[in-house]
Amino acid sequence: MQLFEKQVDRYFRIFFLLFLLVLLGGITLFAFVSRPQYTEVGYSPIQPVAYSHKLHAGNLGMDCRYCHIGVEQSAHAGIPPSEVCMNCHARVKKDSPRLAKIRESYETGQPVNWVRIHRLPDYVHFNHRAHVLAGVSCVSCHGRVDQMVEVRQVQPLSMAWCLDCHRNPAPSLRPPELVTRLDWQPDRDPTEIGRELMARRGIKPPTNCSACHR
Amino acid sequence: MATVSQPAESPLVLEGVTLTQVTSTVAGVVERRTPRAWWFAFAFTGSLTLVLLAMLTYLVTTGIGVWGNNSPVGWAFDITNFVFWIGIGHAGTLISAILYLFRQRWRTSINRFAEAMTLFAVACAAIFPAFHVGRPWRAYWLFPIPNEWSGMWPNFRSPLIWDVFAVSTYGTVSFLFWYLGLIPDLATMRDRAQTHARRVIYGLLSLGWRGSARHWNHYEMAYLLLAGLSTPLVLSVHSIVSFDFAVSLLPGWHATIFPPYFVAGAIFSGFAMVVTLMVIARWFFGLHHLVTMKHLENMNKVMLATGLIVGYAYAVEFFIAWYSGNPFERFAFVNRALGPYSWAYWTMVACNVLAPQLFWFRRFRTSVPVMFVVSLLVNVGMWFERFVIIVTSLHRDFLPAAWGMFRPTWVDLLTLAGSFGLFLTLFLLFVRFLPMISMSEVKAMMASREGA
Amino acid sequence: MSQSTERIGGIYGVAAEFEDAEELLAAVRALRERGYRKLDVLSPFPVHGLAEALGIRRSPLGWAALVAGVTGASAAFLLQWWTGAVSYPLVVGGKPFFAVEPSVPVAFELAVLLASFAAVLGMLALNGLPRFHHPVFAHPRYPAVTDDRFVLVVENDGERFDAVQASEALRATGGEHIQVLEAE
Amino acid sequence: MSEHARKYWRSLSEAAGDPEFRRWLEREFPEHASEWVGSRRALLKLMAASFGLAGLTACRRPEERILPFSKGVEGYVPGRPLYYASIMTLGGLSTGVLVETHEGRPTKIEGNPEHPASRGAATAFVQASVLSLYDPDRSRAVLRVGRRSSWEEFEAFIASHMKAAGKGEGLRVVSGAIGSPSLADLRAFLLERFPAARWIEYEPLGREAEAAGAELAFGRPLQPQYRFDQADVIVSLDADFLGLDCLAPVWIRQYAERRRADSMNRLYVVETGYSLTGANADHRWRARPSEVGEVARYLSRQLGLGGLKAPDPGAPKWLTAIVRDLERHRGRCLVLAGPRQPASVHALVHWINYELGNAGRTVYYTEPVVRTGAEGLQRLAEEAEAGEVKTLVILGANPVYNAPADVAFADLMRRVPLTIHLGQEPDETAALATWHLPEAHYLESWGDGRAADGTAAIQQPTIAPLFGGRTAAEVIALLADYPQRRSYDIVRQYWLRQWKGREAERAWAQALHDGVISGTEFRAVAVSPDPRRLQALLAQAPGKSEDLELQFHPSSSTYDGRFANNGWLQEAPDPITKLTWDNAACMSPATARSLRVESGDVVELEAGGRRIAAPVWILPGHADGAVSIALGYGRTRCGRVGNRVGHNPYPLRTLNTQGFLRGLQVRKTGRRYPLVTTQEHHSMEGRPLVREATLEEFRAQPDFARKPDGKVDAFSLFREHSYSQGHQWGMVVDLNACIGCNACVLACQAENNIPIVGKDQVRRGREMHWIRLDRYFVGEPDDPQIAWQPVACQHCELAPCETVCPVAATNHSPEGLNDMAYNRCIGTRYCANNCPYKVRRFNFLDYHKGLQEVEKMVYNPDVTVRMRGVMEKCTYCVQRIEEKKVQAKAEGRPLRDGEILTACQQTCPAQAIVFGDVNDPDSRVSRLKRDPRNYSLLASLNTRPRTSYLARLRNPNPELAAEEGS
Predict the structure, then answer these.
(1) D157 C-beta neighbours (distance < 10 Å), count
(2) Is residue C85 less than 8 Å (CB to CB) from chain B?
């Protein structure tokens, strides 16, 4: 007496193969979408004030440090006080409705609620000062901000990504005075430049835990 | 309970038992209506399992602080329970593998039972390393999973990683071994099943086993291979568990005697647990003609032998502590015997070394009540052995200023009780739904006996 | 296994029941003497000496397990060396980034794990399991095979196969419940 | 830090007045809790295109806001700490501090190296004071008879009330000791305006006995100023000058400087309880409090004071030995008595010092900075009884809790129609006051103060008052209708008046910058004793009695009770008993035997018809026939941390028994009470952990400390990692300097965001301190010596913890640090098990749970706050190392030795901890590691710790040592 019909074997094989496929596919898919490149890159929230980096840093050619003053002195680059905007906008476009929030902030003393884009977990201590002084350009982590109307995250900012550069820093190094030149193109092999800088300035990026986790 | 007069060489299956009788006795247990007593037992152990679940939920949501662990006693009930259960889990594979390789025929009536016990014990054991960590939701970091977040890998120098590999391999291989042995019997169950549902379920589980001679050919080779692989595996697992301690530098942990000492202890405790459960199952399901006094007596002999090894290890530890001249080592052992946890130490010695000495006497070796009590005592003693090793070594180590005491909380106690609940629940399900004696092997043994 | 039967269609073989192993062994020998080469026996336990009688060769599973075991151990050493010394070398306790000694336990475990999988999965693969539908299940006495009976199958081995002759041969060796099994 | 950091101290004077700045400070308060609304369009866009699985990951990215200032603050760069020089005042005496602030939050206090009372060090109380600032239980509103009111209402009320005050006949002010020059000036102004008013300064732990003794001896109330660095021989008569009788770190510094082998001093201590000073003594004798005076009288007689040379042949040998030692060191020795001893003892001590030629050398005398006394309270009670007191103003004091029991201050307050209380807590006194006014914390307000030697300094705020508090000066200004109303103006105008002219503004700026006003220390006063009066004292001899005596001493955690709501201090173990979250009736083993009590038994202490209950703690080394108990516990209205912690001894303490009382009855109640310690075992078990030798032994064998290790023949199975390149951090702890004061424990707690776990968790052995002070009793159980050993992570080169971590969460940095990555840790606790030093701490529960926003303001942003389930431990303050490395790199120079200070090192008053680069052969740490006294803890384990210890030396009197040896 046959307990199972003949087709059962075929169905079983098909189901088994499908199951394997779904399992492996699922794992692959999960591995893919949970990568930092996928979950982190591209974040570009709407900011309370439609500030265009493309206009200011790109077209007008303002230096990054005009606004982000902390970048050479502190761990944090800093977001400028409304006062900095008003340095120019007290005269330029002084009545633009798009600047209403800036003016209001300047007058009332209430801060503008900017949305943070580049965010590291609390247990990571990143020091802008150390990186800028070593000659790591803004562009290495933040991308061509001077071409972005709305700033978006372009790098995963994950630990593995940090380590890539810490293990092989030469391609990302340039003379420190050029760090804010986002469009800088080296006239020769950037790795070679980097190697020279490393030798001259004793740049040895750490890869141990306490370099970032304290 | 029918008393069987034992001839000089006790039989492994009583005379006059036919193959069909084997089938009907073993399969009958599963096919019979569920006894009331089973339900009562299941209700009890099931509730204990729920207690375990509740305790683990409380633990994960609140923190390790719900246990009594502290500084300096970073491990206490958690790892004690782990080593205890892993130790219990050694008897099954040992019986299946080593005794198989040594052609010890008496294993056939008890190996299935012991293997199932192994599996459930390993399941209970696995709970503890997984949940003793402070952040169990990160426990997957123990496995070498590639990732693009941190680029970090496990530290393969850590005995805990060895543990992860040893225990997961052991669990997997034990399962394969157990299931491999089950396949022919599942086919028997399939072919005897009265309801369609049972037929289909056993049919699927038996994977279409036909009992063809070609099947048996590969099957026997696979079984032999698994036995051959499991033998070093079972020895390695408790050796590696002992490395958790031996590789450290703590007095009382850092000892080269640990691997054999732990393996002997594991076999000791495993056999004790088999005897405890077998005596009950044999009586309850009436398996006297399959599980004879010969089986029980042999297991008691193994307990006596391993008990002596364990006792020897206790003595050698003291001797080495004295002989090494290391003051920390000396203190650790004096503290075990005379310190604040000496009650645990002497409980351990009484249960593990003194109690099995009864088995020198045939009268006690073949007395079911005596062996039941002794096996229970050995279970208790072996739990205390791990407690003594872990807690008394940790609580007073190098700097007296950092010494402390461990006191279990109610969560500790209920988690331990709950792990027994899980173990027994799985066991009850096993005896209810799967053949607890390997029918095909018993039959093969009977056939070869006739042939001889 | 036995794809040949499918090709021919119609009859899978002829099967008869035997009550005990010795009777069965005698029957097998007798049938092989008569030139039946494609025989199979269904039994509740592995019958001693049957494989030799049927001319079944030793299972090659051991080789599979060996290969898997060596693969497992090598993979483990490679993994431990690569993660420890290449991918992210970290100074741990002042010890070398890779050394053989601490790598042995994991290598051993992985070898055993893979070898065991090879043994069990290899057994299933060589036996063509799981296979839930099979002509022999149609034998009326089949269920007893997993209890205490033996079924000897003379399989259809090509054009020369004659079911009636096979049935006769089986009957001559003492088989009962002789039945022709349909190939499906 | 010193030079380098000073560049960043900034004056707040301009900014504080600026409304923008004020708003900024106010905004620091979390009105803007996280906002979850707003666009996540981009993210959603991304997710919409992806699979359901990925949707889960979207939950991981909550929107975070960045709120910049609307206008910049000068000199402030987000992320960079600012340092301000200020002072902290305790008991009227000030210590200079440097306050580190992050984004406007004070987070850490250090000692000010320029300030004479601090010299860069800070005590445990100073370190912990920043936590009190953020105490959520602080007084938050003006209360009128318990109902919420406002400063405006109070101002209106007091203005009209004071109009009817006449000459101030019914006006009485009670305050703590006033060392502040500007407040003293205000007081003078008030008393001028209301000449019939009276102002009482009361400190429960005042030092009036010293000045009263000087009055007896020299005819003038003078304050002795000790120079421990000048003394070769010190005899302390129950004076805990290294411990709680010293509120500034400078004495410890002076003392520790003279513990070096080349010029080692000798310390004799006679005391009742076991104090830090006693623990550091070369010779220590136990005596009941009343017997200490006998020793003073004996010394006077033996030294032949006033021509009365009367050698006593029956005198104990140790006393004659001390006398001989003192005579050998005329002008280079020092005798001092504790504040618990009566004025007569102090007078004798002053006389002894004078006769030994010490006056002007090891001790000199100045006008006292503060004048306190409990007698004023007694008169106040009488006046109140008579109904003469109409208005009672209590400024920053809590007399209902801590006034002498026979004053019955609570009853007194009920008899006064109007009571006004200014305090930081809604405390016991506030509960009975008509008006309660919240007081500003010293980090929130302007002020000034004087150190014990008279040096003045300005107290400048580092944050706007969190809860609307005001200072005592501001309240007095309201009462007295002073021209200036804000303390900034009051202080500034006062000092500008002192300086006058064009230089004044510059001097003000200088004072703020330096944190000290130079040239303000008090001049030494020439003294001459009056032998006739002193001889009368010599003749006094209190009758011997076998009565039990009870001594009251300050608590190492709460001082007099004022820090009771400070969790850091409550959890810090008492250095001697290691008790936390409690006080106890300490007694010697012999006394406990005779009373048939054990540790944890609750006893009733009765004296003069008053009684309290307290648990017994058996303290080896305590004097027999006496009990001592710490004040400052058993408070009922200080807040959630300190309420009902410990037992309150004040009900036994009367006007005449401020130091100790006689005729104590102890009765066993049969109840038990759980006392909790951080150390349960007190013997070294014969293990060579703390290594010590006498000075003579050291001279004979300088490398004695290495002997116990023998020759370590380590044979390695593998090629070890090389640490020969770059910086290699290491530490040396000089056990000879360490006095065991706990300052490092608190500094570490403040620097590294170490949580408070509470009494129950400590009971379970889960305290979180990264550095602990191991205290061992050595010798006879009845009269042991004490040995200390600060133990933090030793940063072993062959770290046993690292090997066993399954996830590599702890491993080594190239600079030799044992790194601990909290975010990688899964919490197996294996590392802690395998740590032979047991310095790793596990977050068994979420110890940061349930904190209010204001409590989180104390966190150091450079250190991760650890979640539950992870291990933590000392990092050698890696955040400080990295900060200085980046700084040096930015300045294009190599790191300087001593530039990096760990938190424990920076605060250590004894300078016992030295940190630095062991790869640099000239660094201080390398030089110390070459010292023959250098040894590693548990060296036989071959863990190769980077922290090593310098063995301790004792300098016993050879005369006595010979005798003790025989």
Answers:
(1) 17
(2) no
| D208-366 homologous superfamily | Dimethylsulfoxide Reductase, domain 2 (3.40.228.10)
Q: Do A207 and C88 touch (CB under 8 A)?
A: yes
Domain ranges of chain A: 6-34, 53-78+118-211, 80-113
Q: Between B258-285 and B368-387, two packed helices, what is the crossing angle to 10 degrees?
A: 140
| CATH number for domain D545-677, candidates 1.10.760.10, 3.30.2420.10, 3.40.50.150, 2.40.40.20 | 2.40.40.20
Q: What is the ipTM of this complex?
A: 0.92
The whole-number average pLDDT for the span C67-85 is: 95
Cβ atoms within 10 Å, residue D230: 17
Q: How far is CA D912 from the centre of its chain?
A: 17
- Rounded to 5°, the CA angle D720-D725-D727 comes to 115
Chain A residues whose CB is inside 8 A of the C142 CB are: 1
Contacts with B, C 37-66, CB within 8 Å: 40-48, 50-51, 54, 56, 58-59, 61-62, 65
Q: Which chains have at least 3 CB atom pairs separated by less than 8 Å from chain C?
A: A, B, D
pTM to 2 decimal places: 0.92
Q: Judging by beta carbons within 10 Å of its beta carbon (0-12, 13-18, 19+), is residue B175 exposed, middle or buried?
A: middle
Does residue C141 belong to the interface with chain B, where contact is any CB pair within 8 Å?
A: no
pLDDT in tens, B47-70: 999 999 999 999 999 999 999 999
Q: Is B195 touching A (CB cutoff 8 A)?
A: no
CATH fold for domain C3-55+132-182: Alpha-Beta Plaits (3.30.70)
pLDDT in tens, D796-851: 999 999 999 999 999 999 999 999 999 999 999 999 999 999 999 999 999 998 88
- Among the listed ranges D9-23, D543-557, D695-709, which one has the minimum average pLDDT value? D9-23
Which residues face D395 on adjacent strands?
D175, D422
CB contact under 8 A, D832 and B398: no
Mutate to test the interface with C, among B160, B221, B247, B448 (most CBs of C within 10 A): B221
All partners of chain D with 3 or more CB pairs under 8 angstroms: A, B, C
Specify the 3-state DSSP secondary structure of D789.
strand
- Rounded CA separation C174/C23 (Å): 8
Rounded to whole angstroms, the Cα distance separating B157 from C103 reads 7
Stretch D873-884: mean pLDDT, rounded?
95
What integer best gives the mean pLDDT of chain B?
89
Distance of CA A158 to the CA centre of its chain: 10
> Going by CATH, does the domain composed of D143-205+372-514 fall within 3.40.50.740?
yes
Q: Which pLDDT score, from 0 to 100, does residue D50 have? A: 36
CA separation (Å) from D367 to D115, D522, D526?
Answer: 20, 7, 11
Domains in chain D: boundaries: 2-116, 143-205+372-514, 208-366, 545-677, 692-711+726-954
Mutate to test the interface with B, among A1, A2, A3 (most CBs of B within 10 A): A3
CATH code that applies to domain D692-711+726-954: 3.30.70.20
Other CB atoms within a 10 A radius of the CB of residue D526 amount to 10
> Does residue C153 contact residue C13 with C-beta atoms inside 8 Å?
yes
**d(C-alpha D563, C-alpha D123), whole Å:** 13
Helices B196-205 and B159-192, interaxial angle, to 10°? 140
Could you give the domains of chain B?
19-134+153-451 (1.20.1630.10)
Contact A109, D20 (CB under 8 A): yes
- Express as a percent the part of chain A with pLDDT over 70: 100
Question: Which tens digit of pLDDT belongs to each residue from B233-259?
Answer: 999 999 999 999 999 999 999 999 999
| Helical ranges in D531-686 per DSSP H | 531-539, 567-571, 589-595
